[in-house]
């Protein structure tokens, strides 16, 4: 077999495009996405990428280990039967049903309410402080890791579901949106080039994945929207949307941009679980 067979397989224009972009240090995942849009099969595109890197004496890109939901569409996790409803490849996202029972949803809401909800905040990129922001208008409360048996059981289930250690999870956050409230498009990863990110990256490293569990579903509006790919997840009560914040090569995935769409009727309550690269205290 010709050592550059994959690189040459789609003609000289593609070969030159790939070599040119590799020379410009473009992100491997972005190149693969463009190649797939151009009709390449993913395996052939990966092979062409590695052949191009070898030709240019660049180190081969390595995929990283990320939290992952297995290929089966019917998952059995710690006694819970969880159903896969849909999967998205770019960004990698999975919509699932029956992660929590309706009793667990109600118990979690009652726990959050008993603690009291406050205006939700965001991390300021410059100072690293938590600040209020007009783009996030929900109210919320943070639960302590394993603060009771219900919380510990849910964290363990999410860790097992995504094959990622429970030690790497942040505490659950419960959010409530009433009509007009929303969380405008944002990334969950910390921007490594921002001054304020370093403090947050020191404890546990990057946020590698997010799971948003729907505890109560709004009558209208309130889905989790991925505007870059035109997809809105609307799981039923107890269902969730899981997504990776990093691409398969470990770069911050700009396609993971997401939003809590405005609720237009009823109340939405979700519980967010963020997973880190390393153990999180
Ligand atoms: O409310 C949602 O659907 C999304 C929540 C979210 O984006 C977050 O908590 O980071």
Care to describe what's here?
The chain is an alpha+beta fold. It has 2 domains: 5-55; 74-276, Jelly Rolls. It has helices at 5-8, 12-23, 28-37, 42-55, 102-115, 149-161, 197-202, and strands at 74-77, 80-88, 93-97, 118-119, 121-123, 130-132, 139-142, 173-177, 183-186, 207-216, 220-221, 224-226, 231-233, 240-244, 258-260, 263-265, 268-276. It has a 9-stranded antiparallel sheet. A hairpin with a 4-residue loop joins strand 2 (80-88) and strand 3. Helix 2 (12-23) crosses helix 4 (42-55) and helix 3 (28-37) packs across helix 4 (42-55). The chain is globular, with a radius of gyration of 20 Å. The termini are far apart. The model has no long low-confidence stretch (mean pLDDT 94). Bound molecules: 2-oxoglutaric acid.
């Amino acid at each position: 077999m010709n050592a550059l067979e994959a690189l040459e397989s789609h003609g000289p224009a593609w070969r030159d495009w790939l070599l040119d972009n590799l020379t410009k240090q473009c992100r491997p995942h972005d190149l693969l996405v463009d190649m797939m849009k151009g009709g390449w099969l993913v395996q052939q595109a990966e092979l062409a990428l590695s052949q191009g890197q070898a030709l240019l004496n660049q180190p081969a890109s390595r995929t990283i280990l990320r939290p992952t939901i297995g290929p089966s569409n019917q998952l059995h996790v710690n006694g819970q039967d969880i159903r896969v409803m849909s999967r998205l490849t770019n960004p990698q996202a999975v919509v699932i049903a029956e992660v929590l029972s309706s009793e667990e949803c109600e118990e979690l809401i009652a726990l959050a309410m008993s603690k009291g909800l406050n205006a939700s905040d965001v991390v300021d990129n410059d100072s690293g402080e938590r600040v209020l922001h007009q783009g996030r208008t929900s109210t919320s409360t943070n639960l302590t890791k394993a603060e009771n048996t219900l919380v510990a059981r849910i964290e363990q289930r999410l860790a097992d579901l995504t094959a990622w250690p429970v030690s790497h999870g942040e505490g659950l956050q419960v959010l409530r949106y009433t009509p007009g409230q929303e969380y405008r498009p944002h990334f969950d990863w910390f921007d490594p080039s921002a001054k304020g990110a370093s403090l947050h990256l020191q404890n546990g490293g990057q946020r590698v994945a997010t799971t948003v569990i729907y505890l109560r579903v709004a009558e209208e509006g309130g889905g989790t929207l991925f505007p870059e790919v035109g997809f809105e997840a609307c799981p039923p009560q107890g269902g969730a949307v899981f997504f990776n914040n990093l691409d398969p090569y470990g770069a911050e995935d700009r396609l993971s941009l997401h939003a809590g769409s405005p609720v237009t009727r009823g109340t939405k309550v979700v519980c967010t679980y963020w997973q880190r690269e390393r153990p999180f205290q």
